User: Fold this.
Amino acid sequence: MKLIIFGATGMMGKELVKQALYNGHIVKAYGRNVFTEDMPKDDNLELVQGALFDEGQVYHAIKGCDAVLSALGGAYDGTDKTRSLGMKNIVLQMKKAGVKRIVAVGGMGLLDNEVGKLIMEEDDFPPALAAVTQEHFKAYQFLKDSGLDWTFVCPPTITEGEPTGVFQTEADLLPESNNNKISSGDLALFMLKELDQHQYGQHRVGISA
Assistant:
């Protein structure tokens, strides 16, 4: 497949780029700093410098791709709208370009709990994560209302590490055996696997090592 990866210069984005190339995909890595970061040297990798909120740049980057991977990041204090408004623009340009499939990273607070509420609505949800979780929630709403073929992966703490293939997933819920962490390698492994297997279309996904 020909893939475009947004947030390609962050920890998760770089892992997605690396694994996508390893799996034989043709990859576009999109971002402001793609030429100043340590990106792989590979004939199947195209570095696309652009602004996430620029409609024309994002449209031209997405056009001709088979699918989108999003690992958008940013500050945690709520002042950074990269996750929400960035997703809004990606969705808009995907629809214009006729690209349907997207697998994106959110946060664990967007999953359902055992009584049908969101984890972010629980009384003991960490206040320090409230603002960034609201950003993830807005991104999720843009996906949910988009009419696109989306999967929104909602991990706990992401640690830097190689893929092991040892993890659990669950549609819309935390996995039964939840260790509150997942490595960047395993998260990327799952996202690329989901592109191929399409097990969680139109779902949030809980994942944990």
